[in-house]
Write the structure tokens for this entry.
Amino acid sequence: MAQTSKYIQGLNPAQRDAVLQTGGPVLVLAGAGSGKTRVVTQRIAHIVSKKLAEPSEILAVTFTNKAAGEMRERVSKLIGKKLGSEVVLSTFHSFCLQVLRQHIEHLGFRKNFTIAGEGDAHTIIRRVLDDLDGVRESFSPGAFRAQISLAKGANGPADIARDVTDAEADPDGVALQDKYLVWLPEISERYQSALRAANALDFDDLLSYVLKLWDEHPRILARYQKRFKYVMVDEYQDTNPVQYALVRRLVAKHENLCVVGDDDQSVYGWRGADVRNILDFEKDFSGAKIITLGQNYRSTKTILAAANAVIAHNKERRIKKTFTQLKEGRAIDWMVVGDDEHEAKLAAAWLKNVREKATARYSDFAVLYRSNNQSRAFEIAFRNAQIPYVVIGGQEFFERAEVRDIIAYLKVLANPRDEPSFLRVVNMPRRGIGDKTLHAVHDLCREQGLPFAKGLALALKEGRVSGPAEHGVGEFLALLTEFRPRLRDGREGLADLVGELVQRIAYKAELERTSKSLEHAGLRWENVEAVIQAVEAYEQSAANPTLHGFLDESSLNSDADRSSKDERRKTGVTLMTMHSAKGLEFPFVFIAGCEEGLVPHERSVRDGAIEEERRLFYVALTRAKRHITLFEALSRNRHGREKMCETSRFLSEIPENLINKRIHAAKDMVEARVQPNKGQPRPRKTSRRAAKAQGKLGA
DNA sequence: AGACCCAGGTTTTTT
DNA sequence: ACCTGGGTCT
């Protein structure tokens, strides 16, 4: 140990290599459960302790705030709180936001720009489509939004242009659903200029504008290159082309780049992640060292063998051997059930059974499914069986209408040009300001390049606002003029001010007026109170709290709910999608809906994305430490129709000796299965009832 | 402005 | 089945 760092103790040889290999580009291929986070954190500690760099000269990038938080905690445990806090450890987006808060004026934005969330982006696109004849009727805003985001993450507008030229060159070759590509450049351009006019950036802009900044201002880039002697990227298989380009620029000087990831766990291709980044690493960074962390510390031999066998069917991958020294464990159980209801009921009974036999806690179990709507049956069954549970996913806190209302007020106060936010609050609560007034003001602003609030004031002064709107406009302007300086000068508490603002607009009364029931209004009011609490929490934690600081944090932290969910996860069964399960582990994992159409999903089959679906199934399997139960339904309620299902192809890829198949469904249904589509027509109810009756025998 | 009705769509999610 | 969004009527 004489000359090695104390931070390599207790590591296996591969992990040690990864920690010690600090110079030059390194790819750490970290199989599931191979102690990846441990390697990254110890590597940072090693660099600091060997004085290879100051903590502030190390940049570690993750994808989620949660991952960043956990990593910071673990680094702090190793090198102390003070040094730990100096390491630049953040998500791609928050790192880029910091860069832009300093330099955005080079790109023609004002320093007080706001971030347009998904809701804002949607609103802008809707308005863009309204201005274009005939587009709104044929296409939904969502399709454009998704496509624009993809293009911006891919390589900027150039990619859109190329797609469209292809489409125009061969109009007949374009599938009907791709016809909207023709509209894309126009809409994309209008969307971008609307954002620019609003002095706002969407999430993709945060990244691509940093790239632009660095490319147009090499001296700014040089400062960052010089500062960050060591750069690490977690979950590298999830990076998109823009993120790849950012990393590439940043490390061009020192070339001390360490990326960590697992190509077999790349499940975000549909949102722009490019597996080639990890597959081609040594081509992109010459002289790269590749270190494989193959030892799995999580799962039994059975589970790992099953997962390995499944993933071996993929062609596009780096072959890596993963192994475990843990014991054999119990065979995987494969439950064949009648339908989705039966699936959930059997799962509940089976769960209780396993919990008792293994003296496990509810929190040791997770139910994983492909799509969120599958949670419903489990929620009902678990409630009936008195099994505590938490559903992860669904609507995010900051996307709820009442929360967005309050945030929109704050955004307008922070950035008077923020048009989507402005339009959201100008007549909320009702002030008699309708379309007529807004159109007039909008034109005025466009003519003179004024922020909305200024335009509103001018319109009022010039008598362009008439009738009931006049009073309302005056009231609204008074609100802005009063609160803007008070929020800006920082003499009063932020949370207090927000509370006062909410009072002033009589928001509680507004909720009571617009809600279906008083109870519903109460729930929504709780969310408003939660916003104020979030402001308070931010004020406590930030060194120098500002309104912008809070808005930035809440934009980039849409999962403010997360901590409360994490708390509840400690007491109950976790219900979530396979995607959200990535990075987590549970002693007992139930995988629901192992059928063609769900895993792999029918749309992925159509798009030819089978390998990604297989990786998703692999992720699901490798979440389990002790035991997996697979559920397969013979028929399933899809969009209100009962449909016969076929077994997921992935189940046949698991060696038979690792599986214990049990048929719980009614015999006649199993027989009907032999010829799935030609089976004699049978009233749906009958088979359902049969399945239910049989369900009681389960477990 | 708000209630009501019909049509369409429906994977995965973070920032 | 269920939710959203848009259009229409009061």
